[in-house]
Design a protein that fits this description.
Length: 213
């Protein structure tokens, strides 16, 4: 008669179950982490780079542009490109003086002013960004990017300024609903639940508001 297998005691069974749960939890955590990194690779990139001393991937490009500006000190386009490269590399304090030099030389350059405003917004300087957006709109009321990114600034403020965002999105959409930016504004308006209404114009900055360019 064959021998019956020995029954595992309770402690062995419990240990085996707990070990299995730990392994499963670790596998789930690893999978979720990898999935999030793939879906949102830009999140915490700056912190990760600082923590591991990873060099700025734009360093060589910035160095080349700095040389180009040094060789062409009066070329506004070269200065604006350098400012944008610095701003996009989280080096806002270095970018600001170049934006200011560009705007001092060409104060009516709406594209440069919108670029400056976006860099300020990305750097958390909300009030300064709003001022530059509204000045750009004052120079060119039909600049769709200025209205759209001003709306983005309002919608991401803490707390969100939803009424102002809805107005600015509506204005961006009204300029030309057929463009990609106009379609983005249309979707944003629908998400905010304001239908087809276009509110009052966005506030325009006055020259007395600041002495900055």
């Amino acid at each position: 008669m064959p021998r019956r297998p020995r029954r595992q005691n309770r402690s062995q069974v419990t240990y085996a179950i707990l070990a299995s749960l730990v392994v499963c939890s670790m596998l789930v955590f690893t999978f979720v982490s990898l999935f999030q990194d793939q879906q949102f690779p830009w999140e915490d990139s700056a912190d990760s780079a600082n923590a591991t001393n990873i060099p700025d991937p734009n360093e060589d490009v910035i160095a080349e542009q700095q040389t180009a500006v040094a060789n062409n000190p009066n070329d506004v386009e070269e200065m604006l490109l350098l400012a944008n490269l610095l701003g996009n590399s989280d080096r806002l304090t270095e970018a600001i003086p170049w934006y200011e030099r560009v705007l001092a030389a060409t104060p009516d350059d709406v594209v440069a002013r919108v670029d400056f405003a976006r860099a300020l917004a990305d750097g958390g300087l909300t009030s300064d960004a709003e001022l530059q957006f509204t000045r750009a709109i004052a120079l060119d009321p039909r600049n769709q990017d200025a209205h759209y990114y001003l709306a983005e600034l309002y919608s991401t403020s803490v707390p969100p300024r939803q009424a102002a965002a809805a107005r600015a999105y509506g204005e961006a959409r009204a300029i030309d609903p057929t463009t990609f930016r106009g379609q983005q504004a249309e979707q944003a308006v629908m998400q905010l639940g304001v239908g087809n209404a276009v509110g009052s114009p966005s506030p325009i900055a006055t020259p007395e508001a600041t002495n900055s360019p």
